[in-house]
Amino acid sequence: MSAAQHEQQARQETSAADRDAAKYDPGALAVAQGCGPYDGVCWRSKRNPTARFRDMAEQHRRAAAEHRAASAVLRDIEATACTGIAAEDRDISPFERTDDVASAAPLTEERATGVGRSRTVTVGARVVFYPVPGLTPEKLQREVDCHLARAAVLGHELPEMPDCPLVPKGAQARVVVTEHGLTVEIRGEDSTAAADIIARAERLKIR
Question: How far is it, in rounded angstroms, from Cα 193 to Cα 59?
């Protein structure tokens, strides 16, 4: 869920808690009598018939608090990751600078399938940037981390960035220096995310 979705859910849980709390009457009292199945003794007990509404209200308030905490965590991560990043670089993915993208290709790795056997698996994409004056590996990594955090805050729904490979849920990225230039390796948390990442990265080449 995005930070905004967590906040909306928190508001809904709070409203539900208020509705249930209004139905709870601390002074309500009902007497129930139950007879033992063996000795035939019928004991009476007093209970509050509206107590379940109090319990339900407490559950909703706990859920609301959890959603608010989750939203705060996402926003704190974004704030930390984007510290020192210019406003323009926060709004524009580095992968939208397509004139500076040299190449994009699948990122693969070998995975064992048995004794002495393995297979090649696509785990994401590798995007290479041409040398850009002033762009260091550290600077690019900070921009990448900022956009990963922003994608999480927005629930990985960024229609304005249809080709950014950092958007899919669970994407992880690191910047490495190669002979061809700065390379960003983006990995997906599963095969679906990996396929989305490589599809987005490959679209960068056709602009």
Answer: 34
Question: Would you state the structure tokens that stand for residue 27, as one six-digit string?
Answer: 């002074």
pLDDT digits (tens, 9 = 90+) for 96-137: 888 999 999 999 998 887 777 888 999 999 999 999 999 999
From residue 21, alpha-carbon distances to 44, 46, 50 in Å are: 27, 21, 10
Report residue 94 as tokens.
């580095």
Q: How far is the C-alpha of 55 from the C-alpha of 64, rounded, in Å?
A: 14
Tokens of 197: 């990442």
Cα dihedral sign for 75, 76, 79, 82? negative
pTM of the model as a whole:
0.67
CA distances from residue 180 to 101, 175, 176, 184, 195 in whole angstroms, order as listed: 11, 13, 11, 12, 24
**Is residue 49 a contact partner of residue 27, using CB atoms and an 8 Å limit?**
no
- The domains of the chain are located at 3-81, 94-206
Single-letter amino acid, residue 203:
R
- Specify the DSSP element, H or E, that contains 30: strand 30-35
Alpha-carbon span 46 to 26, nearest angstrom: 13
Token digits of residue 130: 């041409």
